[in-house]
Fold DM2 domain-containing protein.
Amino acid sequence: MSLGCCCSSFLALEFPVSTSSSTLRLVSAHSLANLRMGRLEIRAASSKPATTGKREPRGITKPRPISPAMQDLLGVPEIPRTQALKHIWAYIKHHNLQDPENKKIIVCDEKLKNIFGGKERVGFLEIAGLISPHFIK
C-alpha cells in the first residue's frame, strides 16, 4: 500500500502551538502505513448546553383527554395514545377476546364494541385507527 511517501524513515516533529505547554506532533506516513483507512469524524461543539433529564412528552406520547366510552374501558380521563393501545391489548388478552383460530382478529365484547364503532370483529391493525376518534383535541 502506497501513501505517496518516498521517505522510508520515521520522522516526528514537535513544535509549540501557543505559549502554553500544548504541542502539535507531525508524524510521517511511514508510521501510519500499518493503520487501516477509517472514516474521520469531526464534531462541532454544540451551541446549546447539554441538558440532562427528560423532555416534555410530544405527539403520541403526550397525554390527551379521551371520550367517555374510552374512559369506561381504561378508567382514566386522559392518557397517551401509546398507553391506551397497551391497555386495550391487556384488556383483550385478559378477557381472552382473540379469535382462537386467527389471533390477529379480536372478537369484541360490549365495551370494545363501544370503542370500535359497533363492530363484532376487528383486525389488530385496525385498532390504532379505530381509537383515534376517542382522543379529544
Observations:
- Residues 81-94 form the longest helix (14 residues).
- DSSP finds four helices and six strands in the chain.
